[in-house]
Amino acid sequence: MTVADSLTIFTAICKKMQNNQCIVLETQRLILREMTLDDLDNLLAVLCDPEAMQFYPKPFDRQMVQAWIKRNMQRYTQHGFGLWALVLKQNSKLIGDCGLVLQDVDGVEEVEIGYHVRRDLWGQGLATEAAQACRDYGFNQLGFNKLISLIHPDNIASCRVAQKNGMRLSKKTEWRNKPTCIYTVERSNLPI
Ligand SMILES: CC(C)(COP(=O)(O)OP(=O)(O)OC[C@H]1O[C@@H](n2cnc3c(N)ncnc32)[C@H](O)[C@@H]1OP(=O)(O)O)[C@@H](O)C(=O)NCCC(=O)NCCS
After folding, report:
1. Which residues span the domain enclosing 178?
2. What b-and-e string marks burial along 7-25, b requiring 16 or more CB atoms within 10 Å of the CB?
3. Residue 117 CA: which ligand 1 atom is closest?
4. For the chain, what percent of residues have pLDDT higher than 90?
5. If we measure between CA atoms, which residue out of 20, 26, 2 comes closest to residue 134?
6. Alpha-carbon distances, residue 25 vs 28, 63, 107 (angstroms)
7. Number of structural domains found in the chain
8. How remote is the CA of residue 95 from the centroid of ligand 1, in Å?
9. Confidence label for 22 from pLDDT (cuts 50, 70 and 90)
């Protein structure tokens, strides 16, 4: 059995089902659960926003969000993790995504913490709350030693979330044809 196989089995055991939804993590204000195609409209509201998507080639349309959801569903099956739906406990509404994704960075496979929050909710610490939970899950449950975030240098809010997630700028590179800051946190850098 490969490490990936055992991780997939382990994470499947850890998740709990609620209303047919697979919950991975819970924080004070948020639930992180696996996304499904039923989330299409709510995720579209987050990912079609031109301001939120200014560092992507273009805002997502319906078809792109559908592909995005399918890609994450495939990740859950293949690796046991991916980007998860962010649900506000207060009203059970999907307000973004956050999670762990494998990325090739300069020929090295890294585990990235990624996040998107619906624009009307920015500045309330929600991305930080979700990202910290994903960091702890990545270190403590999945056993990773290092996690990164890939961020456009002009994406100040995202850089700030990475810093509040214990990360430091470790390298600047070109990633998918764009200047990119690599923010890194290692398990050994965090207090036990
Ligand atoms: C990045 C993003 C997820 C942050 O979500 P959020 O819930 O607003 O994040 P938080 O509230 O946890 O933290 C945001 C921090 O950025 C700061 N910030 C936001 N815009 C800023 C700006 N223009 N200049 C300086 N600081 C800024 C906020 O003040 C806050 O820091 P503080 O707590 O020290 O005051 C959100 O802006 C987003 O969805 N952006 C579009 C998608 C994206 O870029 N994702 C990341 C891809 S790498």
Report:
1. 3-189
2. bbeebeeebeeeeebbbbb
3. 39
4. 87
5. 26
6. 10, 28, 30
7. 1
8. 14
9. very high
